[in-house]
Amino acid sequence: MRSLGFVVLLGLGYGFVSSVTPRHAWDKLILTHHWPQTFCGMEHCQSNLNYWTLHGLWPNSGIACNSSWNFNETEIEDLKTEMDKYWPDLKNPESTWFWKYEWHKHGTCAATSESLNSQHKYFSKALELYHKLDLDGMLKKSNIVPSEHYYSLDDIEKAIAGFTGATPKIQCAHSEKNQKLGQIEICFNRDFQLMDCEKSAEVLRYPAGVLTGFSVCDGKTPIYYPPLTEG
């Protein structure tokens, strides 16, 4: 009985470890881009940026994995000029709050990988992937540019997949009036190799004129890619 009890306890111990460890385990990174005009239309901010900016680099599992690992701006001082331009806080351009939030929520989870196990590694790798992809360039080469012209979801997906070889996740801000291109996710495995993104079929609907949050664009509805001069 004693040995049986030991086996049971050992089994429970392994069960406990396996139930806790995977909580922070991830196998995919999601590089997420914002279109500033759509974002600011939702958040009541103003932006004169005419290129896609970074929203974040998100592991597909885990949120705020280490609350004691505080954001330290001095560790990314050499990246600040680049981050101000390509990873800005669109609501508060002079603030570092957005970076602090992304580090706390996502960076501390990404840090379980040796290649991302510091603030500098995490932010610099996100910038590296952002530049390597050149989302603006991909879309322009397929004649998908901000304008009064509307595009199909299929056209946008093909424009990106044609360069990356992987399916992106295209998200819109939805209203009864239209759907606006707002966020694009491109996915990588732990070795930073491109892979298909998963996408939910859910499309959220809101009252006329109201834009709230992003969800996967409706493939049956034309997509508006708002230009800088809008409004």
TrEMBL record:
Residues 1-19 form the signal peptide. One of its GO terms (cellular component) is extracellular region. Gene3D superfamilies: Ribonuclease T2-like. One of its GO terms (molecular function) is ribonuclease T2 activity. Its main location: endoplasmic reticulum. Pfam families: Ribonuclease_T2 (PF00445). It is found in: Endoplasmic reticulum lumen; Lysosome lumen; Secreted. The active site is at H55, E102, H106. It catalyses: an adenylyl-uridine-RNA = a 3'-end 2',3'-cyclophospho-AMP-RNA + a 5'-end dephospho-uridine-RNA; a guanylyl-uridine-RNA = a 3'-end 2',3'-cyclophospho-GMP-RNA + a 5'-end dephospho-uridine-RNA. InterPro entries: Ribonuclease_T2_eukaryotic, RNase_T2-like, RNase_T2-like_sf, RNase_T2_His_AS_1, RNase_T2_His_AS_2. CDD domains: RNase_T2_euk. Keywords: Disulfide bond, Endonuclease, Endoplasmic reticulum, Glycoprotein, Hydrolase, Lyase, Lysosome, Nuclease, Secreted, Signal. GO terms for biological process: RNA catabolic process. SUPFAM superfamilies: Ribonuclease Rh-like. Belongs to the RNase T2 family. This is Uncharacterized protein. It comes from Denticeps clupeoides (denticle herring). The gene is rnaset2.
